[in-house]
């Protein structure tokens, strides 16, 4: 592996903080030295250039040799081209043809799998050569070479090479790149682009820093795509885009033009460029005047990933590379080549070749694990589990759990077990025993599998025993949460029983024991414990497991615990526990018996009728407010018994009701007047009974009591003629609010008169309306045809021979008769009624039409 050191900008200070921040930043690329055959070649020779194809590599050396290598650097073929330095190698897109130029002026273009070729010797060094990308096609047999001028070679139809000069006179051609129909080259003055399809030069991008020697700081060219050229020269970078001109702009100008979309200066000398999506990979050599750089760091080549901006750039990452003999190299000794197919970047130096590639998910996980970011590593592995090759999700998870345990974060480690261990029983049991060893069984207890995957019962029992020793609440929680099938129930019951011997009143242990008995279907024991503890789940237990036969002798206990729930349960299950059985159990607890019978009466007035007599005393003792409603609603209670009880306890209202119900209304009224002294209630009672004698008694009793007289005057106007009362008032008696009472009587009288007159008007109007309607109805004609029949003889109402004489009577009710079929007229002379309607009492329908012929 090539050594890589994270780089810093020259302006940054070498503080500990910045170094710590750098160390936390993940590299974007990973590096490895191209070895195998390359190592042996560069031990004896030095690399001068290299070209990359998706299938192989072509390496040129200072001793004039060209080596073909596979992607791993293994030698596959060797060509002895020249005794001097190879300047450039060019391959077409298919990788079937190769062009080579050397320092002694030799140019060779030949097929790797054919015998065709071009060989030429020039009298000056040839620095560059470039084949047409589609050179293997017979229509594109073209290539260019460059020394002191740029020459284009084309094969004509006679299979001979034709030469044409594209450019000369501006110094040595130092670089050339051919993409589709565009050729870009660099000389001492700048960069030119030539369109081979239109045979026009379309731009000239001038060189910025003319003070730098072109041979020491050569221009780097790279096509990002068929229309975007990246230029790096000295310390400047430009991104140029070739665009089509509009038809209106053409005139004598080339059909294309170049727009510089980004241009900026760097603090380093550019040795090579390559695209990475919308970013750039730059190989640079540190400037000699970078005083802030350390000497060791300054000498190394650096590979940066930068984000170009219109007038600047943003550095994404920077790596300093330790290549062999880097101390002896200069800017011109480094080159950067890239493979578009796999995003591989080759850093070529005379004695070393380093391959940089984008880090994959495995590399990302390696970095996270190295930084002890286990949680992020686990998440990354889970997301990309289909793409990772060197890692396994479970192993990463186990490393994370080990890390958490070492940190002492046992709760988090236990929680992660659920996710990491999955359904691997062996791993689960190993982890449980590890947590037991470190005394943290409680931490892992809530995360143990309890569904389809289940561990051995001994594992769960071990954890339960651990909780039972020190944490009764935690033990109870586990018993509630864990299914009873996970462990041996009898073993745990015995353990709880042993602990209860030491602490027999511990409610937590007792409740848990009841739950264990429930799991074991020993419901009677569970019920005893719940009742003893007055536990709220006792009713749920009874319902769920139908334990009504077990509670027949425990009804008092249930009602002492929660009267409302107990009574509702008993009433909802009368078929399982009879009313008689409940009454028998509650006979010694009359207050509870009253609650039960009261709710029973509310549900159904007739079910407990045999206990209504007993209920009278219960209501009188425990619930007098509901006694009167009970007496009103019950038709089964003995009135004499009720009257006796009410009179004993001096319950006036209830006694009044019973007396009125038994027909002794006068005595009832007397009690209201004498004991309650409530004239309003007396008047209301008289109104309910609607008895003239009661009114007379009421008036007689009230005649010498002015307040009672006022009450009567205010209330009896609609029931008794007020004159009868007024006549009996003694002359000179002072009656409170007499004037108001008389005014009210007159107002009530006027109101009655108005109501009668209003009703009369309505009645008259309705009668008139109905009379008019009846008249209109009776004035209508009635259709008589052959389909109608006589309602008496059921023959057709019309004779078959219409020439004969006939007579027909039709009533308003639409019944029809032959006249001779009608019975004799009624007692009213001249009025005839329909027999059918008269018989059905529908009202007398008189004949409305008599047809004769």
UniProtKB/TrEMBL annotation:
Residues 1-12 have a biased composition (Basic and acidic residues). One of its GO terms (biological process) is cellular response to starvation. It is found in: Cytoplasm, Cytosol; Early endosome membrane; Endosome membrane; Late endosome membrane. Keywords: Autophagy, Cytoplasm, Cytoplasmic vesicle, Endosome, Golgi apparatus, Lysosome, Membrane, Metal-binding, Protein transport, Transport, Zinc, Zinc-finger. It comes from the Eukaryota. It is a peripheral membrane protein. PANTHER family: VACUOLAR PROTEIN SORTING VPS41, VACUOLAR PROTEIN SORTING-ASSOCIATED PROTEIN 41 HOMOLOG. This is Vacuolar protein sorting-associated protein 41 homolog. It comes from Hucho hucho (huchen). The lineage of its organism: Eukaryota, Metazoa, Chordata, Craniata, Vertebrata.
